[in-house]
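hi!! sorry for the late reply, been swamped w classes. u asked for the two structures so here they r. pasted raw, havent cleaned anything up. first the sequence of the first protein and right below it the tokens
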Amino acid sequence: MIYSTRSVKGQARDENRDCVGAAFDGVRGIFVVVDGTSKPGSGQLAQALIDQILTRYCEKIASGCSDNSHEEAAVLLKEVLNDAHDTLFSTAFTGSASYLVGVAAAGLLTIAYEGDCCAGSVEISSSPITWFTAPHCLANWKRDRDHRQLAADLGRHQISRSFKARKKPDPEIVTRATVEGEKLVFATDGFWADLSDVTQAQLLGAEMSDPTYVDDDVSWIVVQIPA
């Protein structure tokens, strides 16, 4: 399993409030994208949340917890998110963030997310990404629109779920099998909404330069599933 992570500050941003992180232990890959909101402290929260998720998930696996099924992985992800929430908001952290965590192991992909970070896949090189998670935002309250339609609606900027102090994590869980030879993509809304399908496909290649013309932060992880 080969992966790459990239994050680019938007031209209209004073700081990059996106964060990405990943870990692979030879058996499973853990992939995290977090998009801090405009609330004070959200950029710092995003980085701390990624650190918490990666550290705690690996610790639980090392202690004997299993993620060999979708159900076990989902339980583990919820425990990790609750532990991270208790730790971060009992200290000095403030703000809120969208997040998406994907665990790929043994031919299975389990995703936990809240907010507008999304996951997708590409089975044929250079073809558009097929997004398979629905963003939690005002524009998608009926969950009947595709990502390109949502990208054109300003209501997408009003997220309906997030990681925040006053509410325990309640992630939506999405599961599927991984497909031999496919690429998985985990991205913030700056990637799936502000970039064209063609640009998105081009940026999945490691040799492509970063986009420098977008207002929002743009972050993504590309995972190559072995053939």
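now the second protein. again sequence first, tokens right under
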Amino acid sequence: MPAFQPDRLAEWARGTWTSRPSGALTGFSADSRRIGAGECFVALRTDRRDGHDFLRSAMEAGARAAIVSRADPSVSLPQLVVEDPLAALQAIARAHRLAFGGRVVGISGSCGKTSTKELLALLLGGQEGGVLSTEGNLNNHLGVPLTLTRIDPVRHRFAVVEAGISAEGDMDSLAAMIEPDVAIITLVAEAHLKDLGSLEGVAREKAKLPRAVRAAGMAVFPRQCADLPAFGELGVDRMILEPADVIRPAVPPKDVVYFTVTQREETTAIAIAYGPPPPLVFTLRRVSPGMAQNVALAICSALWLGVSPATIQERIGGWGPAHWRGEVLRDGGRLLYVDCYNANPASMRDALANFRDLASAAGPSLYLLGCMEELGPEAPAYHRGVGRSLTLRPGDLAVLVGSEAASLRDGLLEAGAEPDQVRVISDAAQAAPMVAGWTGSVFVKGSRKYRLETALEGAAAEAAH
């Protein structure tokens, strides 16, 4: 485990110790209930609570020290007094990352960040192979420094760090802390428009991560990003993945890698023109076209970082998306597509296209659609557009939940759905009996807010192979 010396922490955080800790600190936590022995408690103040009120709890749980903005002499815990505990943690994380001799990969994008992160970590060797990666979705101003401070310079060769943003300026501190050797942007799409305003606003914020790539590093992203003005002048080497119907022997531009995707009933084959001909071909469990592009991004990044094609194929063969993040499942004879963690217009269209292809001959389909959050004033139009993109067949049923369910319903009716094929519910749990009793295929996707997994609690689903 990493070891943080108190004097070095005071230097990095520009703080002063009330008393010196008895030894090195082994990590950091902002949750007094989950802090480990020997760790440092970071006393953060939020709208709901003040971490300074939990110093004693942290000490009793095993904390060796705390970072505070005001010392509490009634608690006999060494306290590093700083102006801003969060800024101090971020400064410590950045300094710790700069001292790391391995490679750091930063990943962001409007869709598929977490699955791409987990796949790349697997391709690089996983935990047993010395790879640290972001746990869950700890990808914000607090999660990124907590991830970076988990880097063990003795044990780790790679760190794969996810960076999530929702407002202008969010990426500034994240990119500065990560300072990636490789930056991957999966896609720029209509997400977080409430604060970022437009697709161009999303692109400008996302582009800050590849712009922070170290000298001799690499930025990896799809053609869709490259065509946006924000990605035009990054000042770093770049690898642009461009989909093609057929990979021809013509030499592409030096910064372009062509790839093709072939969908079969149970598998997806991806051919990538990386290096001299012939193209490299990788086969994995069936994924959507959008996810296949993310897989290609992860593969090219792993190749650039020195992983052999044979090793990549060995590791990718049984891989599938993370739990409830675009899984294709089987429940008895039923097909289920489940994504309860993310929804924006681009990811919804991609998932629906993949599901319709998979379920084309599987009888009637049930669509449980949660609304897409943070789309700003154009949210009704985006939801109506998604509804118009889905043509219900006889026997199909759409069940809608969320603040823009009426707009989704309008779009479905405009696409030809009968009124009795569309139902609006107030809570996802109300759909559980419908899902349990449905004999055909089931599609479940929506923003995390709606907890669509509560409709699946009776399903005994297994990953499709």
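hope this helps!! also noticed smth abt the second:
The chain has a mean pLDDT of 93.
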